[in-house]
Amino acid sequence: MPTPAPSTQIRVALVEDDVEVQHAIVSAIEASADLCMACLANTRAEGLLALQGQAADVLLVDLGLPDGSGLDVIQAARHLWPTCAVMVCTTFADEAHVMKSLEAGASGYLLKDGEAGDMLREIRSLYAGGSPISPMIARKILTHFRKESLTKALEPAGRQGNIPSVLSVRETEVLELITKGFTADEIAKVMQVSTHTVQTYVRRIYAKLKVNSKAEAIYEARYQGLV
Amino acid sequence: MTQAHRSKWRCQGSWRQCACARLIFAFCALVWSLSLAGCEQAVRETPATQWREAQFLSVPGRGYSRPPAQLTPEFLAQEGWKSVGLPSAFKRDVLAAAGLEGQTLTDWYRLDLSHFNAGHEPQYLYIPRWKTVGQVAIYADGRLLYASQGSMTLNGYNHPLLIPLNAAADELLPMAVTLRIDYLRNSGSALSTVWVGPAKALVWRYQLRQLVQTQLPFIGSGAFLAVGFFALAIWIKLRRDSLYLIFFATSVMAFLRMLHYHVGGGFLPLSDEWMEWIKTCSLIWLVVFCHCLMERLHRLSMRGVTRFLMLSALLWSAVTVPGLGILPTLTLLTPMINILMVPVAALIFYDALRKGFRQNSRETWVVAGWLFIAALCCIYDLLLQTNWVSPEGIYTNPYAIVGVFGVTLYIMYGRYVGAMENIEQANLHLAQRLSIREAELMASHARLRDIERIQMLSEERQRLTQDMHDGLGSSLVTALRAVEGGDMTQALLGDILKACIDDLKLTIDSMEPIEADLLLLLATLRFRLGPRLKAAGVRLNWEVQDIPKLSWLNPRSGLHILRIFQEAFANILKHTRATEVHVRTGMQGPNVVVSIQDNGTGFDYEAVRLSPKGRGLHNQMRRAQAINGSVQWVSGPLGTQFTLLLPLSGTEER
């Protein structure tokens, strides 16, 4: 969970090549009192360079950058800015794009066609530990972990030590309710917990997804000099 | 396997056979040369004397009499002794059999050893071969030294004799040795040359004779019988191949037939009659079974001949059973049967060979070679038996019979190697065919997949085109016309574009795999449209219940459902001024029901349906029909309930 920045404002970094979207996001942030822009990058290269600087609180990344995939930036951010919450900017929040981003290390996504107010709310919510999740993504994650638990059952020990690689009963319950169309508030009521707790579950599910992803394993191996 | 491979295989097979034959030949040659070398050395050291002449006296008698213990000097000195050359043989006096049956002759042979220079070593008498239906006795200076044992017929005639003349300490060599041989007139008798000498000079001769005359036939027939039992075991397992059974029967008959070459001269548990019966019948059966073997080996079908032979053999065996008394004693018939069997066997084998040669295989030539040799052996043995040739010779028939064994084994070996080769080829052929079939199957699968993919793509294209045309396209055209007309407010344009984006989002969602889960589809719809409802101040109550999976749900039908509800929500937002919406799911008979109830102002269904504004309703109905479902509206002043009914079980999409 990201620690609060020294200033009270949430520092936002943006990697996005579409000038209009850039403008919409930047102007919305600048108009708000509790958010401020930390840095702005137009390309993948600029984004990776920006990661060498001071860490922001929230990083917004577009996947389709002119010189490569935003996924690289997301992956690098996870290691260079470990406290930063990463969001992927997407038009459709379609399952293929979002799943890849989540596996790379993103904790949420931002719909480009959203109202300015919605966008700011999403950023704040993410910073506070919440994570948006669509029913399709929930279903995808359930399927992913069902497969994972099958293969895990055959292996004597999990790949990672501290983070368990299977979903808990409660986490599975949350995901199943999401696939049926219930919102976080409704789920909280059904499960008799707070909305915040439900959001924590989702965040934890995303974390497990990262650990389980193949991309992460390869990155980890390269990082440790295994590959 | 290619032709080259095949010929190579065959070469290897024959090479192996050749190698085997060479090995056996080399071994025999080694044994032979070693024994020859040993013999020569022995000959050089201590010579033995071969007697080619003896004093001879023949005394007629009536019936057999036991040899006396002592010969009187008067007897030895009587008149009538004359010189005779050795070997000496008396042919069968067949005519004598007619009138004077049972009349015997007793022949006496005397060797004078008085001038024999013996030295100090003990001397031995060695008789390579003698033959009679009767008894042989040997006297040294008139004292009985040896008398043959066993019956008159099985007296050990085929066994050479080696008898010490002065074995006891300080015993002197006798001055004369006298042989007594009694026999039936009509069966003749024979005596080979006689040797006197020290053990060193005679033992190897004796042993070699013993080996060739009795031991090798015994070993050969035993080995044949052992392999015969092996063949029997195979036959018990593989009943359909009678070749193995016939091989076994042949080996048994060969063993029985060869008994009389090495058995005898002792006390047998069987009477002479039975032994004779076995000897005769085994010969007949041997010929019959050889014929059957040939039939199988040449893969001929001579059922008639075989049946006739079998019956004849059976009849003969039954008629001649000793004790029945149907036929007179076999001893006298045996030579005739032997003679009779020669043309019969020749005829049978000639027929088989004639047919075999048409196949012109190496096997036929091997069999022909063996038959030729066997025929020579038969003729020679007949001559030997009837004393037409020197009695020094040995019976060759045992070797001819063991030859059957060799020839059969050779052919079976060839067959076995051939079968192995065939199996290998069959396997290879099978593997090839399998791989070809696999490739064909793969190709056909690929073709099918291609066709399927093309069909799927075409359907998907059609679906998206239709959707774009009805939804996104018409919305954009509306916006364009409005902008061109100049009466477009920014807010209205924004709304139209938002609707377009929603359209697109739902289109994309419809392409996700939803695994027949209608709830997931509705959840996605809520996820997309929820923010719009919220923005419009409409409170959404999500009261869904679990519903069974709809197996017919695919992207095409999924999009229809999404569009139906999109239209329903759009209507609520545009026309009803509702503040609360309830979404419910459930079962109603065989249908799945999804209902949306609002608390808006309601509308006149009939009026709207007939007006130009009713296009949306018509679209919903059309889409519902396309997926075998139906839509209902129940509208009143307190609100409207829109219901979609969907079939539970899959039906063909219209």
CATH class wording of the largest domain in chain A: Alpha Beta
Count of domains of chain A:
2
What structural class results from the helix and strand content of chain A?
alpha/beta
**Termini separation of chain B:** 57 Å
Average pLDDT of chain A works out at 82
User: What is the strand tally of chain A?
Assistant: 7
What is the number of strand segments of chain B?
18
Proportion of helical residues of chain A: 40-55%
Largest beta sheet of chain B, briefly?
6 strands, antiparallel
What is the beta-strand fraction of chain B?
Answer: 15-25%
Helix content of chain B: 55-70%
Mean pLDDT of chain B: 82
**CATH topology of the largest domain in chain A, which one?**
Rossmann fold
Helix-strand topology string of chain A: EHEHEEEHEHEHHHHHH
Return the CATH architecture of one domain in chain B.
Sandwich
Tell me the strand percentage band of chain A.
Answer: 5-15%
Describe the model:
The complex is a heterodimer of chains A (227) and B (654). Chain A starts with 9 loop residues before the first strand and ends with a helix. Chain A has helices at 19-31, 44-50, 70-80, 95-104, 116-127, 135-154, 169-179, 184-191, 195-212, 214-223, and strands at residues 10-15, 35-41, 58-62, 64-65, 68-69, 85-90, 108-111. In chain A, a hairpin with a 2-residue loop joins strand 4 and strand 5 (68-69). The longest helix of chain A has 20 residues, at 135-154. Chain A has 227 residues and is of the alpha/beta class. Among the domains of chain B are: 1-45; 50-207, Immunoglobulin-like, CATH 2.60.40; 514-647, Heat Shock Protein 90 (2-Layer Sandwich). Chain B is built from 15 helices and 18 strands. Chain B has helices spanning 3-45, 73-77, 94-99, 199-237, 243-262, 272-297, 303-319, 330-359, 362-385, 397-485, 490-510, 518-535, 555-576, 605-610, 615-626; strands spanning 49-51, 53-62, 82-85, 88-90, 103-112, 123-127, 130-132, 134-140, 143-147, 161-164, 176-184, 189-191, 194-198, 539-543, 580-588, 591-598, 630-636, 639-647. The interface between A and B is medium-sized, with 20 and 24 residues.
